[in-house]
């Protein structure tokens, strides 16, 4: 299908920057999974992203994601839920998302455990001192990891976080790497790190991120009616 020239340019620019950041960190970009976050964007844009080679799509609102995933069911896409998830919507989300990046509490774990198929999960870590922000307290990670491992329907992938706005991103992501080490001590196979957004993915790559969640740098601004 025809791809908007501006979208192609943004995608290729970000891909080049990812390659540069990986080389600077003595890593290969082949180690990295790019998740393009398409919240508020139409299904037609996701079709264009697929034409560009994108296979991982991120969404953070169930009410937007579900109809979009249904409309695009003909495409070989892997859907990732990357936003805060209410427990009462968890099972519905697992109908189309195979990976949830925001597991941060036991009640959500129990809800996800009722999925009809295996769901990959990242433990979201709160990197701030504000308990009102999303993410689990780092001290809770070992217990959450153990409970995920005991679930027959959940597969522990690793850890996820959003860098605080008032802190240098690389310093925050260095702490996330330390939290990843704690989780890997419990589940050696759960070594993936979901970190890095449009403004800080280079810093995340430098600190070991494996999954980048990039939205507006690729998709552009949200439509005017959203």
What structural keywords apply?
alpha/beta; 226 residues; 8 strands; globular; 9 helices
Task: Using the coordinates shown, work out and report the CATH topology.
Answer: TIM Barrel
What is the CATH superfamily classification?
Answer: Alanine racemase
User: Overall mean pLDDT score?
Assistant: 96
The Cα radius of gyration reads 17 Å
Largest sheet: 8 strands, parallel
What is shown here, in short?
It is built from nine helices and eight strands.
What's the layout of helices and strands?
Layout: H1 5-24, E1 33-37, H2 43-51, E2 56-59, H3 62-71, E3 78-81, H4 90-93, E4 99-103, H5 106-112, E5 119-124, H6 141-149, E6 154-160, H7 169-186, E7 192-194, H8 201-206, E8 211-214, H9 216-219
Parallel strand pairs: 1-2, 1-8, 2-3, 3-4, 4-5, 5-6, 6-7
Helix pairs in contact: 6-7
